[in-house]
Amino acid sequence: RGDLGLKGSVAIYAGAHGPANGLDGLLDTAAELRGSEWTFLLVGQGIEKARLMRRAEHECLTNVVFLDPVPKADVYNLLQAADVGLHLLAEASLFQFGISPNKLLDYWACKLPVLTNVGGSTGDLVETVGGGMAITHDGIADGLRGFLSCNPNERLRMADRGRAWVLENRNRTEMTRRLQVLLDELVTG
Prior knowledge:
Layout: E1 9-14, H1 23-32, E2 38-43, H2 49-58, E3 64-67, H3 72-79, E4 84-87, H4 102-109, E5 114-116, H5 120-129, E6 132-134, H6 140-149, H7 152-169, H8 172-188
Helix pairs in contact: 4-7
């Protein structure tokens, strides 16, 4: 946090800065929470990044920090500088079905609780696992307020539950083992 000049509670969005990611909603939230304890760290690249940076500067959103993409080897340390991972997409019915929530899984793998505005199976997964909070598209600020109102131990439990789910269900070694069992059953069955 010190190296990045981050203060207070940090919400991180790490990923593409494109139209599908709905990052204007994140800047709306930063404006709403201006003067609060929240700092918003946006890491990545994309066709919307320059415009988003201009908007943040124009609106004097001093609680927003933009960083360029970081090497994969540095992602863990970067995520450890945050209190919550933001898994965001623009509002589109298509995103209710068939998306791969890679950012969600990355956050959980790094033991970071998640706030997601993606409904459908993704929102259901977050709620079922208990690894964070599922919110509406325009509920990011309320979700962050709710996150801070949680007992700090509950926030740690969210992070633990998310990481445990990833290790049990998305660990490559475990997934390979399951595939091998399935293939063995097909060959011998």
